[in-house]
Amino acid sequence: MSKTEALPLYERKHLTKIIPRLIELTILFLCFSLLGYRLLHLKNHGFIWLVALLCESWFTFIWIVVVNIKWNPIAIKTYPERLLQRNLELPPLDMFVTTADPVLEPPIITVNTVISLLSVDYPANKLACYLSDDAASPLTYFCLVEASEFAKLWIPFCKKYNVPVRAPFRYFSDQSLFTGNSSSEFQEDWNIMKDEYRRLCQKIEEAAQKSVPCELTGDFAAFVDIDRRSHPTIIKVISENKEGLPDGLPPIVYISREKRPNHAHHFKAGAMNVLARVSGVMTNAPFMLNVDCDMFANNPQVVLHAMCLLLGVKDETDCGFVQFPQQFYDGLKDDPFGNQMVVMIKYLGRGLAGHQGPLYGGTGCFHRRKVIYGSSPEDKSGHGKMNTGDLEKAFGKSTKFNKFVAQALSSSSRTAECPESISKSIDEACQVASCGYEYGTAWGKEVNEPAILIPISIFVVFNTYCVSEYIQTNQSIKSWWNNHRMARIIAMTAWLCGFLSAIFKILRLSVTVFEVTKKEQSSSTDESEEKLGRFTFDNSPVFVPGTTILMVNLTALGIGFLDFMQGNGGKIEWGIGELVCSIWVVLCFWSFLKGLLGKGKYGIPSSTVCKSAALAFVFVQICRSSWGI
Fold first, then answer.
1. Does pTM top 0.85 for this prediction?
2. Is 268 marked as a binding-site residue?
3. Most buried residue, 287, 535, 540, 629, by most Cβ within 10 Å?
């Protein structure tokens, strides 16, 4: 064995530090002390302390989970250069991109995602890209065809000059990525590519402004009178790379699965199932990558890094998937919406790596195909020995697909039996993409006393420790505050509504609706960062709980102020603790306070204000009657 082959493809480095562990244990000790104090004095304070005990018990439980996750952090270092030095044939990879609405998810965003994947540092004859379009939009298909033409020029340019970021919109908008080469040849090629990308954007913008992007004839005939909620399967092979060129254009396949009103389509999960089956009869790569349409590959060697982990383990059952964290470009300063997850990814992500690895994040994940098909680490015999009846019962009645399923389950990770031609597999692919294919199969089955020092200590130590984590990751204190307040807001808005939605679904009072969020694209309009960081409101019920909480605490502060002005003659005993807690909640929901005073999209609608005011009034009256105030 050569020295290069003996070197590992990745290394795990333990990052255990004593001081963080001591701080975490101190916080945990204080939490248990507080719970003990509450229990000892519960008889003397009644219902209010019981509620506080329940809340603090939940916080303690969460902190136990957090400490457990962060106890053994691990950093993973991969060595793609060692993988390339080995005389091994790299395994094929099927790449999935999902989109559902060309209005909420502009095609130019999807196109950049696809182009960034097509141009990664990996042999083109080992890649295949599948785009799932749940809107059955001729605009999306048109843009994908145009993007494939641009990719024929973009891929050689990226490989020739080792372009660091392969998403064109990002590369041409960041001047720091352009300054690495000053040769006249590069300057000329760079200008040519920028002009080509500008023309691509112009074509897409012009097509988006029309009711239909082009005449619906030829390849576009399938989109005539299309109804996005009820239509047959549409599968188009845009590029095939029949010559198997390692530096050519990888195969590109457009998929819009069949939809019918009386068949549940299971939203993105259903789309992923169809992508797995269609790719299974077309290219059948042993590994799959799924990416949301607004997540581009910001590292051209991302596939090589993933393969270091998937191929570097001694036993493939030790690594079922590789999850890459999401990173955000051009994030607003100090993270006003608390959604950049820098600290969480660094500390909780490394902590999870010390256990069995991170959770599946829904995007940016490399999967072993056999794991998606149901292979488990405990099953050493392999599913490949399943008979025809068992395969049909689990995977459906497609003979060709089941043949490749059996092969994928029984073979090694680096081999895959592929169909002779992608184009010749369209009929079979349409069959496995039909809306009724999953029925009867395994697809789609459904995861002022001394004791006052205890809560004060928890509050101070916990938040100080959190601030230190942000400082260590080069984040500002304001960024910590924004993430802290957003955690409070999300818990009392989105999470609460999600919890209630799940309860209503269990009680069969409602059905779950998958709502596509609007994806923002780059704009030339000069909008100040202050406005970009402001909340926008609408009539959604998700804003009612947050507005109600704000009103309750404002009312509490108002009652406390009046009580103070009366010389403490009221019936409420106020202290610093109550005052600080109410002020803290108001500060956390400051964006809602600005919404009460705002106008237009930055103001809370009057209907939401009325609902929240009514709920706050009822809550206050119940409290006053309960305590005889």
1. no
2. yes
3. 287
